[in-house]
């Protein structure tokens, strides 16, 4: 009952005319940005920060949530139409979506993606509403030691679940933490790694790193791979309508994947990518016609789409209740919130109920907009993919510049942006994942603060991190999250010579 | 002499960086009052962690970096063919020229003003990247820049330099 009252309060905020306009704009902008190959929700959210930083936090987050949903859906559009997933979370969609498009059923695949995203998102919002306050109550009892361990777990989980090298992921995470502690140490007033430059006293702005590492590096990467290359001819979109038998075929996979996706999203580090792959493989195993997966089976589009949207909502649980982002995307969201002056965490529910419930209510509205907006606009939206790449690249560059300069008014930051763009390019070329860097950047300063506070309370005794049961278990899980993939890899290696 | 693989080269660079980072951590002045944890502890932990990770990277066999994007690979191939035609249009030259354009933009933003500098950057880079419909290019670049300028300055009250133009 209390949740329902709170939700009504949230709707009161989300249904304010300006906020509806923001959701609408967010979903639309997110869909378009997410559709552009290479630009996923992280870039979309980073590009939105300069727009939201002057807004009311609830409105800003409402817009961001819309962008997030839109970008995930937009990613599936490019997955289906071009076989070029803008985001890792929509890779699984392309397995059956693109074959459907090649058979002239792109419209149907996009419609299924829209319906599945809508249902996946809506089901998981109900779960979020129920789970988040409960988890928030537990989290209130967390002290600095528990927080530190939780953040270590957040970092290791993201690193261990990335498909790239574990060591490189950890290096990226450490680099992120190193960047986060540059500037004046707020606890002692000591300068660290400023190289005597006044520009670095406040540290490096999160936006500079995020836009550089993601958006600018992506532009460089496209250029390096021959940007502006000839576009492949598109197939006809076809009808958007679904028959009754098709609806009954996709309903159970959508329901199952929505629940699975939500719980995958809640786990730190898992998120939309793992959720969508799990949803896809679960349905492939359960389906009688599992052998047709990968050849244009409609269930192969419905399951990952429901799961990835549900996982997106699920990933808001650790962000809103613990203040710890479970993925690169929610890390960017956290950065945006901090810029707006809101610190998510267990106290947010009490201190800023307008933000918390406003966001949950706006997710419902965002989901409805996603469906209402995207279905009729699908053929039109698909045309944006025909925009000449040279122009697209230069416009992304301008957005990055405006984003950084509009916020810091610093020429130095523009040059830093270029530096991070080149660093992001290097990381991409040498197989370093970038999400851990951004997560390290976001968590680094809070992590250090928690560690120092815990050590101050314990009088410098490091065993405080293992004396407290919650902290100890979090650290054990963190260690396991790193060791298990290594052990699994070792076992596979041992088995493979035997098999051959 | 054994030749290093990519990971080993990267590991060496990262190790040098970690060593420099650690050296700087030791230069951080200590707080006048005794505290259980000072400003230098966390950087030292980070420096040693990075050093250990560099050692692990040195021992790791490099995996092949796959792009997973056939279309991009085809485009890359086409671009490599272009390289033979013009050095200025080779993929790496594009990255270098774009970087230089960003530096020039940063330096000219205040004297030229936001609208002029951004339009020049947008138009110029689109042209350099291969877009040849100049009228459309100019209209789109100017349109987007003006929209951004008006939104930021009028709607959000953010100051952007006017430079040579009166507004």
From TrEMBL, chain A:
Pfam families in the record: TctA
Endpoints of the signal sequence: none
Segments forming a coiled coil: none
Domain DUF112: 20-439
Keyword line: Membrane, Transmembrane, Transmembrane helix
Top-level taxon of the source organism: Bacteria
Transmembrane intervals: 20-39, 110-132, 138-159, 166-184, 204-224, 259-280, 324-343, 355-379, 391-417, 429-447, 470-487
Name recorded for this polypeptide: Tripartite tricarboxylate transporter permease
Native source organism of the sequence: Billgrantia zhangzhouensis
UniProtKB/TrEMBL annotation, chain B:
Protein name according to UniProt: Tripartite tricarboxylate transporter TctB family protein
Membrane-spanning parts: 9-29, 95-128, 134-152
Domain DUF1468: 9-161
A Pfam family it matches: TctB
Database matches in InterPro entries: DUF1468
Keywords: Membrane, Transmembrane, Transmembrane helix
Superkingdom of this protein's organism: Bacteria
Keyword Membrane: yes
């Amino acid at each position: 009952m209390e949740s329902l009252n709170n939700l009504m309060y949230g709707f009161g905020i989300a249904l304010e005319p300006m906020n509806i306009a923001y959701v609408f704009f967010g979903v639309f902008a997110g869909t378009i940005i997410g559709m552009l190959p290479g630009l996923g929700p992280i870039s979309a959210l980073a590009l939105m920060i300069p727009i939201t930083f002057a807004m009311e936090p609830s409105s800003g987050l409402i817009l961001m949530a819309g962008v997030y949903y839109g970008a995930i859906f937009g990613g599936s559009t490019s997955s289906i139409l071009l076989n070029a997933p803008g985001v890792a979370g929509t890779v699984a969609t392309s397995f059956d979506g693109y074959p459907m498009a090649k058979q002239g059923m792109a419209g149907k695949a996009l419609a299924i993606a829209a319906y599945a995203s809508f249902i996946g998102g809506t089901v998981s919002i109900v779960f979020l509403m129920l789970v988040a306050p409960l988890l928030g109550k537990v989290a209130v009892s967390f002290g600095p030691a528990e927080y530190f361990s939780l953040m270590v777990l957040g970092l290791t989980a993201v690193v261990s679940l990335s498909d790239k090298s574990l060591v490189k992921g950890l290096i990226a995470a450490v680099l992120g933490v190193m960047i986060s502690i540059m500037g004046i140490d707020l606890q002692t007033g000591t300068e660290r790694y400023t190289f005597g430059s006044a520009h670095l006293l406040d540290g490096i702005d999160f936006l500079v790193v995020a836009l550089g590492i993601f958006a600018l590096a992506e532009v460089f990467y496209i250029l390096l791979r021959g940007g502006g290359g000839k576009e492949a001819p598109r197939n006809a979109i076809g009808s958007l309508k679904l028959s009754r038998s098709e609806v009954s075929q996709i309903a159970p996979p959508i329901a199952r994947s929505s629940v699975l996706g939500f719980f995958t999203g809640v786990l730190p580090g898992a998120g939309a990518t793992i959720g969508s792959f799990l949803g896809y493989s679960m349905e492939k195993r359960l389906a009688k016609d599992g052998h047709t997966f990968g050849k244009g089976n409609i269930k192969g589009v419905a399951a990952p789409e429901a799961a990835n949207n549900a996982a997106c909502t699920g990933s808001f649980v650790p962000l809103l209740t613990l203040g710890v982002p479970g993925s690169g995307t929610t890390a960017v969201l956290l950065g945006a919130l901090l810029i707006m002056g809101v610190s998510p965490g267990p106290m947010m529910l009490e201190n800023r109920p307008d933000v918390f419930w406003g966001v949950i209510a706006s997710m419902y509205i965002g989901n409805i907009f996603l469906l209402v907006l995207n279905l009729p606009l699908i053929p039109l939206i698909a045309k944006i993919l025909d925009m000449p790449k040279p122009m697209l690249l230069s416009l992304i560059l301008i957005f990055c510049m405006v984003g950084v300069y509009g916020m810091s008014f610093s020429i130095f930051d523009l040059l830093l942006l270029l530096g991070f763009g080149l660093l992001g390019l290097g990381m991409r070329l040498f197989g370093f994942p970038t999400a851990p860097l951004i997560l390290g950047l976001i968590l680094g300063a809070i992590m250090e603060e928690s560690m120092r506070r815990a050590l101050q309370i314990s009088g410098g005794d490091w065993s405080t991190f293992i004396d407290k049961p919650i902290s100890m278990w979090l650290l054990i899980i963190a260690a396991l999250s790193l060791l298990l993939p290594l052990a699994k890899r070792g076992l596979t290696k041992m088995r493979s010579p035997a098999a051959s | 002499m054994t030749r290093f693989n990519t990971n080993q080269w990267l590991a060496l660079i990262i190790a040098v960086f970690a060593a420099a980072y650690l050296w700087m951590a030791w230069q951080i002045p200590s707080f006048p009052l005794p505290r259980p944890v000072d400003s230098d502890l966390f950087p030292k932990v980070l420096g040693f962690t990075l050093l250990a990770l560099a050692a692990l990277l040195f021992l790791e066999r490099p995996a092949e970096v796959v792009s997973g994007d056939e279309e991009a690979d085809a485009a890359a191939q086409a671009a490599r063919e272009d390289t033979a035609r013009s050095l200025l249009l080779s993929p790496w030259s594009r990255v270098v020229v774009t970087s230089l354009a960003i530096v020039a933009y940063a330096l000219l933003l205040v004297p030229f003003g936001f609208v002029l500098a951004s339009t020049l950057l947008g138009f110029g880079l689109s042209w350099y990247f291969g877009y040849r419909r100049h009228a459309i290019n100019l209209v789109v670049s100017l349109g987007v820049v003006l929209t951004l300028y008006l939104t930021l300055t009028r709607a959000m009250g953010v100051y952007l330099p006017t430079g040579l133009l009166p507004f």
